[in-house]
Amino acid sequence: MPKEQIRKRGKRKTKQEDEFVPKAAAPAVPEPVAANDDAAASGGIHPSRLAFMKTGVRPPPPPKPEGGEGDAQEGVQEDGAADWTRGPRHESEFPFGPLDPDVKAYFRNVEEQVKDWEGAGVGEENAGEEREDRQLFLTSVLNELRGHELQVATDPETAVVLERLLPSLNDWGRRVVGDSVGEGWETLVRHRFGSHVAQTWLTLAAGTLDREVGRAGDECKCAELTCQARGIYPPQHAEQRAKAEGTDEGTLPTMAELVTTLTDALLPVLPVILISQFASPVVRLLLLVLTPNRALPSLDGADSGANLIRSKRSGKFRKGQGVQGKSILGDEQQPKGKGKEREGRDVPAAVAALRGKIRAEVMARVSGVEWQSMGVDKVGSAAVQLLLEVEVADSDAEKEGSLLDIITEGLVAHLHADPDADLPEAKPFLSALQVSSTGTRLFEALLRLSPEPVFQALWFTYFDGKIGKLAQHPYANFAVGVGVSRLNAGAAKAAVGEVQAVSGGRGLIKTARTSVLLALVERATALGDADVATAVVGLIKSALDLGDHADALVPALMALKTYPIYEAIRTGAEVPDDEEVPADAVDKDAEAQATATARRSAWENRRNTRPRGQLEPNMQGCLLLQALVALPTGNIPVLDSLFAQPTDTLLAYAKSPIASHLLDKVLTSPAVPAKYRRKLYLGFVGRYAELADDRLGSRVADTVWDTADGYMREKIARSLIPDATTLANSQFGRFLSRRLDLHLLQRRPDEWRAAQIGVKHHFAHQKEAEAKPVPAPAPVAAEVKAEPSAEDEAAARKAEKRKWRKEREEKDEIDELFASSEKSKKKKSKRV
Hints:
One of its GO terms (biological process) is endonucleolytic cleavage in ITS1 to separate SSU-rRNA from 5.8S rRNA and LSU-rRNA from tricistronic rRNA transcript (SSU-rRNA, 5.8S rRNA, LSU-rRNA). The protein has 832 residues and is mostly helical. Among the domains are: 29-59, no CATH class; 95-238 and 250-352, no CATH class; 463-646, no CATH class; 647-764.
């Protein structure tokens, strides 16, 4: 490294040295003269800038005006120009004031303990004491929180701690936290961190509302917020009501009253906060909470419904913080798994009516142009989609002037005026919406939620005749896929023809845009039409450019390559150039935008671009193969291609995190004939030990065992007997080894069959009879028995002889040796 680039550390000076160093007086700033002004004017340089360039000294800032007016307008100069110095952060980041440092340090320590207990449950041993300790800990934390709720919720470091604590609170604690917000709901939901706390509180408030309203079938049908007909309230609620009777003392509002207060606080600013980055998710979640029987996103963000509320960035941050949304007391507030929200969530009638109030308010205050601009906004588009869903649920979508009518630019009114009239011409807004990166999501919602007449008009106006081009568009292909899912058999076959007309569909494989192909396969499965299924399989063969190489369907589609490219990569030959797609079928601006977005996403996720010359399993290709396997008619070519591959290829698929799902689908789908499953069972015979020893292959082996019949289970188990020890010591294979119980199969096969297959041995009924206690016979009067005949006596003697011979034959040499030794011992004892 050159000497001039070496970074040297200066000598540190002591405080005493700094104090006695005389400070040089600042040089006087020379006053600019008229000549300088003329030179600056001629050169286009500001006089102050010219003076700085000549002297090297910055001019002092202009004096601030004295008095209250100057203090109120801090950061603004006399002439109105903005001061570049950053103002105080109190108003923007800490709207309720900064949190005390000691309280912040306390909550940091609390977070470490909550992380250890969150979702861990309470041990069986000393469960009562451990739960009591956790309850005391929670009580002390809540006492410290009292009076600082808003500061904690808006502090960057403690807001997550409050989110962790909320699931551990009972209904009373949640009401206390909600009541502490008071009139600050608008400020809280607009805040970057406070909005996330509000979302967690609202999600938990839905469960409290459900308990307060009771269950369906109650005798009381009133709509009062204070109605307690069979409602479930915490014990403190009744105690407080009893103390407050006859006094002026206030009571803690119920959850229904708190949600009403929240809604009333947000109503005046709804049009503004619908497009607010932080407040809009809270409003969307509020609409879900006000909808009865509507599943809510889980607090841990594991289900797909969370994308409707939280952004990807918010979900990534929450995942990085490790927020599980579980109680530290071991109480499971939410069901486990994705989409496991309990059915039948009730909402009080007066609270549910607030949803219509919200919709009426925004419809009255937002114009049609603003709705359309909101539909292409990154934040507002999700709110418009949810409001459309609410409108369809309320059966108001087909009315003139509805939100659906505004977004479709009068299409609903046109159909309402004359249902038999010709379709209107395509409008510019919707035409731009379907090819927009943000607007296409709104178009998907239109196709998914619109009534059947409106859907037919949208499809034949904006998609019919353009499917081949739109299917290859980087954004419009998703809208086409949603529309295909609602087509009938005739329209589906027409869509297949349009896609195949554009370069045979090969552009869909080369650009990895398979959403339309996947939607066509799933629609053919739902319709159950053999002609549609055959047409779809033919389209996929054409898109892969298979020709006469039908056996290459599965490996080529798994790698998502056309057959010429797949074969060139497999054999090491030169990869052929991509054939050009017609110029009229390519949107160059959209392609450039999609490429830039993909590049940025790869950079943000630290993910390298996949090399072009690899044949690794592809996610889109595997999903398409799984859908093809589930076809009731038309899946035979796919299955034949799969089992035409060598066992090593199938074993590689089983060990792949992507391709293993295809084998699971073959084993579990009812559309797959039994003979193909049998081929898969027998194909792995002799390789099951290798399969079970893999992290992902062991899961496929478990699926094989679960779906196999009794005969095939025994065949698989006997093939694994030589590898029993290796399998038992394997990190992953030991789980399958426990299920198979190979040692029992070796020693007692009959018991193994009874335990594993459910087949009982033909002598099992005798053992059961011996095990059962025989009841003592009741005393009865003596009966006269008939004397046995000569034939009966002869038959009895023959039976005894047969029994003696059988026992003698069953004895082996060892038994005879022990028997002879016992006889000799008896003889010696007699002699003595």
